[in-house]
Design brief:
The protein is an alpha+beta fold. 42% of the residues lie in helices and 22% in strands. The chain has 3 helices and 7 strands. Strands 1-4-5-6-7-3-2 form a 7-stranded antiparallel β-sheet, with helices on one face. A hairpin with a 6-residue loop joins strand 6 and strand 7. Helix 2 packs antiparallel against helix 3.
Length: 199
């Protein structure tokens, strides 16, 4: 269920602070994961209470975002009129390991349709390259010219092109990534000075 956040009513004074204890950011090394910068924060409240209060605070602001929630999972993205092809989606998972503070694990990614399309394209190109290499090996062992090798090379170049396009998309999405992260850190009352994962 999507809920546009348009109300500007004042925040109730009964809410406890959602002060984050600490936060860290983790770069992911693989090609597809590089499109999905991640971060984590530790909160003082239990997961259910933390996500309930965060949802309530977001609903009482006029931030230009849309929020989706399912259990302890929350997704934030910009309003439909502000979206473009590369607009980011920020997913949040609230969890509490045994004896540890509540951890919010956040991840930026393209829209689900774009993300799924990229994954399917990578898998298709990888499969095509594999079978092309097998066929080229068969051609070579039979004394023929391994022309199928060029198909595998084309798949590799296509993957590199997709990687390049994804980096352009990430740059185009940066402003909205910063917006979503700033909104989250404002509502969680955390320091917004460190944005290594967004670079």
């Amino acid at each position: 269920m999507q809920t546009p956040l348009t109300s500007s009513r004042p925040l109730s004074q009964t809410h406890q602070p959602l002060q984050a204890l600490e936060h860290k950011q983790t770069a992911m090394p693989t090609t597809t994961a590089a499109m999905r910068p991640t971060f984590s924060m530790a909160l003082a409240l239990p997961p259910q209470e933390a996500i309930d209060q965060l949802q309530a605070r977001l609903a009482q602001t006029d931030h230009p975002i849309v929020v989706q929630r399912a259990g302890l999972h929350m997704t934030l993205t910009v309003n439909p009129e502000l979206r473009h092809f590369w607009s980011p989606w920020m997913t949040l998972e609230f969890e509490q390991p045994d004896g540890q503070p509540t951890t919010v694990r956040g991840r930026f990614s393209p829209s689900p349709n774009i993300w799924t399309g990229f994954i399917m394209a990578y898998l298709t190109l990888a499969a095509a390259a594999f079978f092309a290499l097998m066929f080229a090996l068969s051609q070579w062992t039979m004394g023929s010219s391994p022309t199928a090798f060029w198909i595998a090379l084309g798949c590799l170049l296509a993957c590199l092109a997709m990687r390049w396009v994804s980096q352009i998309g990430k740059k185009l999405a940066r402003d909205q990534m910063v917006l979503l992260r700033d909104i989250l850190e404002t509502e969680l009352q955390t320091d917004t000075s460190n944005k290594t994962a967004l670079r």
